[in-house]
Amino acid sequence: MAPPPQFQRSSSPSPSQPSGKSEISDLKLQLRQLAGSRAPGADDAKRELFKKVISHMTVGVDVSSLFSEMVMCSATSDIVLKKMCYLYVGNYAKGNPDLALLTINFLQRDCRDEDPMIRGLALRSLCSLRVTNLVEYLVGPLGSGLKDPNAYVRTVAAMGVLKLYHISASACVDADFPSMLKRLMLNDPDSQVVANCLSSLQEIWSAEANTSEEAAREREALLSKPLVYHLLNRIKEFNEWAQCLILDLISNYIPSDNDEIFDIMNLLEDRLQHANGAVVLGTIKVFLHLTLSMADVHQQVYERIKAPLLTLMSSGSPEQSYAVLSHLHLLVMRAPVLFSSDYKHFYCQYSEPSYVKKLKLEMLTAIANESNTFEIVTELCEYAANVDVSIAREAIRAVGKIALQQFDVNAIVDRLLQFLEMEKDYVTAETLVLVKDLLRKYPQWSHDCIAVVGNISSKNVQEPKAKSALIWMLGEYSQDMPEAPYILENLVDNWDDEHSSEVRLHLLTAVMKCFFKRPPETQNALGAALAAGLADFRQDVHDRALFYYRLLQYDESTAERVVNPPKQAVSVFADTQSSELKDRIFDEFNSLSVIYQKPSYMFTGKEHRGLTDISEELGNLSVEAHPAAEALPAQIYEANDVDLLLSTSEKEEVRGPVNNSSAYRAPDYDSTTAALVSSQVPLEADLSIPGLPAYNPQVSSAIDDLLGLGLSVAPTPAPPPLALNPKAALDPGSFQRKWSQLAISSSQEFCIEPRAVVALATPQTLLRHMQGHHIQCIASGGQPPSFKFFFYAQRAGQPPSFFLVECLVNSSSARAQVKIKADDGAAAGDFSALFQAALSKFGE
């Protein structure tokens, strides 16, 4: 009898492209019709329908509405149908615990099936439901499974106990399953059952050891001598996964004497020839940990494990090679001499991926010594022309590292200088950095290196680290490089084109060094560099320029001792990884710690995780908003009124800085407060430094003249006879109306003093300074190097006319633009001169 025609439809949609609820309803109807059918071909029809259901489920279509029909159709002896049904049930049981209850009867029935494969599959599916309310239904089948005559069922049951423990630890312990697992582990003839029992017991007793002394004793019993030898004697029966599990257990075992160590190593000797890399690495870990206290034997272990590791490295996939290389790298760092004769194994092959090549280059660097340096450096120099730029860079760095190890320095320096003639930007950049380090360690090579470096144009060096290295050499050896002052001067002239703080810092220092060695040629460059550095919006650049400027103000000889002292050669460069970290990584041999080259706590502990890993935790935090009443008066003032003071175009210009937390705000000071503050806070120039001469304004002026820092500043005009009201008041609304109604009476641009640029690092000081001259600030904004201020003042006497000022200050160019509007246009000129005079005294 043929199956019903509705189950032979050929025009149905593709399973990967469900047509919606209509197809789900169609599937439900067909499944219901086939439920309980024993007609010939019914199982084949069920298979096709089950495949469609599983396909829909895989692409994310919700087919949970078919739960009842799928369970009803599971009453069959077809194992393929059983597998698909178990897969479906396991997927939807956790999210639908009420529906999962429907599966208990047929799963328990299948756990008693005659076919051991079905018993095992049913037990695995039953334990995979992970529904707390169904725990009571798991205990019986699990107990029967642990006593099942078939090894496959016992294997599944051993892992099922662990699943039960994670669902309900108390139910697992109360049923005495750990004891049953222990008996199975010691007595079961099947190796896979033993392995599963061991894995489950390790996890259960490790978790229970924190609360139960008995569990702690049982966990220690896993490392007892009888159990360890029991597992070692049967290790050949286990598969690769189980062997790795046993080897990891044995690596924590502490033998009672040296004879026991040799017995264990003899039993595991043949595991070093295993085809599986994980087994080989696990065996090596055991050997290394057992012999840590035996120095001679430990060295022999290195010799013994070298050949298996080199064989594994050269065979298999690139991923396996990288994993083995990472472990070899760790061993090479601990005992480079033992691998020095095998350096050719670490030569790079053209077809290898870059991550493997990079690791090999690090190992070549580590094993270089007097006997093999020439061959290794020759090979590395070939890689410098590699099409892979990253590998070429690493090869050049490796050559430099070998030179820093004091092996064949003469030949290596010559090869590095030849790299500079290759006329490749990245080669030149990496070589310059290495030449700088070499000169720090071997100053005697300065003449040979400087002769070549002096021919390099700074325009051809764009990378910040390389340009910094070149600038360092120009400053350190300016007496040997005729063009050094002029190259530095050109770099200072292009200050604004250089965006790297590192380069600007090195440039400031190099110009200072060159000034003390060749003052006439560097005088102008130093003045320009200090002016640019003082106006720099980067805090570290500004601070260093200010530091140098003040050193020169106080005493030139002291400045020279600080900036350009006699230097000693660097003997040892700092290691990027401490010995303690390396020991921690070695303790975690054969784990991800070796691949990541960091201890496990650094990538598993919460405090070391990145923002991406803890984004969910951060998402639960709330930021409490502060009400306006709790804000500072100045903040409320600016938030409410600053937009009222500006025109539409000006609002767009200032709104960004105003909303920025770094914008500067005008505090509500009056003239008496300003006078009190100025009387209590001494100027920076009045401070004295122990051990240095007292500050002398005449010396400061001489330094400014010498370096050209004051040449571009307009002379201070004499204050005109215009008196201002010290208690002038103007509200923001009136200021805005006047500003929109009045025409510009005066507009000018002028330079400001370098000391004013320095003081402008804290714009609030300018507001206090101007208030001391009876000129009030009503709004301010901006961020370095551009600032915008709105001032107002009132003429004393009659008529009491107002002056409104817009002042734009650029600390980078040391210039100020001033627009003045006045009720009395005839007096605008006098006020402009008074305003400029007040601004010229800022910073004194």
Automatic annotation (TrEMBL):
Subunit of clathrin-associated adaptor protein complex that plays a role in protein sorting in the late-Golgi/trans-Golgi network (TGN) and/or endosomes. The AP complexes mediate both the recruitment of clathrin to membranes and the recognition of sorting signals within the cytosolic tails of transmembrane cargo molecules. It comes from Spirodela intermedia (Intermediate duckweed). It is found in: Endomembrane system. One of its GO terms (cellular component) is clathrin adaptor complex. The keyword Protein transport applies. Keywords: Membrane, Protein transport, Transport. One of its GO terms (molecular function) is clathrin binding. Residues 7-19 have a biased composition (Low complexity). Its main location: membrane. GO terms for biological process: intracellular protein transport; vesicle-mediated transport. Transmembrane segments: none annotated. SUPFAM superfamilies: ARM repeat. Adaptor protein complexes are heterotetramers composed of two large adaptins (beta-type subunit and alpha-type or delta-type or epsilon-type or gamma-type subunit), a medium adaptin (mu-type subunit) and a small adaptin (sigma-type subunit). It comes from the Eukaryota. Residues 1-24 are annotated as: Disordered. This is Beta-adaptin-like protein. SMART domains: B2-adapt-app_C (SM01020). The keyword Transport applies. Belongs to the adaptor complexes large subunit family.
